[in-house]
Amino acid sequence: MSWLFGKIAFIVLRPSNLLLLLAVLGFVVSLRGRRWGLWLLATALGAMVLVTLVPVGLWLTSPLERRFPIPSPMPERVDGFVVLGGGTEPHLFAVNGRPDFDDAGDRFFALLELARRYPQARVIFTGGPAADRGSATEADVIADLWSRHGLPFERLVLDREARNTIENARNAFALARPRPGEVWLLVTSAKHMPRSVGCFRAVGFPVVPFPVDFRTGGPRPLFDELHVSRRLYELDEAIYEWFGLFYYRLLGHTPELLPGAGP
Q1: Residues 189, 234: one domain?
Q2: Each residue of 145-186: pLDDT tens digit?
Q3: Is 133 a domain residue?
């Protein structure tokens, strides 16, 4: 149940939700004549203005994305690669019959690229059920994508059960059964790579990180474009990853708080 507790906890701790709750609470309390309610309301609104004016979320994302560089040069031989779930839209696939992806869908361009670059490599995709278990799974979306590009199905192994990153690692290890000396790439979003590598290390699966879906790169101006929803989304995504790192370390799912490129 730890995966469910973590997801429920972050619904409340998600910055955009938390700031809205504090603003509403402050407003309600202020109507009852309590001065601290006005302070709470002003603090919540002030924080929203601050993260809109200043790219706080991207600043928090950058150190996560820089933990693991893109391999250069790429390995000459790759025995297999694992692509983590996330970035698909199973409910849209179930309705429209075509693979749909969200803004984390870069990993599936990488899947097709690597499949052609290393034609002998085994391919594991691990992504389980959607929130609505009656809908399609992430694996269903990837199977359709794979088929549309004419790639041989005997290379593709689908894990339809994993619900979170530690289950991704455990299930991928069981499916891959990597032998000593084999080279396996791990494909996921750059900001998610530290937690992912930590989980794979914890289950004894050595991987070469292949990060994609970068959101940061180089210095950014102090005051960037004004876009409330985008800035709050960036902050939500950054805090989610930092929350995940602390939570996974607490549960023992990762051997260290912030895994890096070292051993």
Answers
A1: no
A2: 999 999 998 999 999 999 899 999 999 999 999 999 999 999
A3: yes
How far apart are the C-alpha atoms of 163 and 169, rounded to whole Å?
11
Q: Are strands 184-189 and 208-212 parallel, antiparallel or unpaired?
A: parallel
Coil, strand or helix: which one is 78? coil
* DSSP 3-state of 98: coil
Ranges under pLDDT 70 in the chain: 1-12, 130-135, 218-226, 263
Amino acid letter for position 150: G
Round to whole Å and give the CA distance between 229 and 121: 41
Q: Is the peptide bond between 73 and the residue preceding it cis, with omega within 30 degrees of 0?
A: yes
For the chain, the domain total comes to 2
**Which tokens is 95 given?**
């309705």
Q: Are residues 24 and 138 in the same domain?
A: no
Q: Are strands 156-159 and 184-189 parallel, antiparallel or unpaired?
A: unpaired
- Amino acid identity for residue 260 in this structure: G
The domain in which residue 41 lies consists of 2-64+225-251
Tokens at residue 193, please? 């790579």
Sign of the CA dihedral running 257, 194, 214, 17: negative
Residue 79 shares a structural domain with residue 50:
no
Residue 209 DSSP SS3: strand
CA–CA distance from 253 to each of 83, 98, 207, 239, 248 (Å)? Answer: 19, 35, 16, 18, 5
If asked whether residues 160 and 243 sit together in one domain, one would say no
Residue 6, in any domain of the structure: yes
* Helices marked H in the chain: 2-13, 15-31, 35-53, 56-65, 90-96, 106-117, 138-148, 165-176, 193-202, 228-251
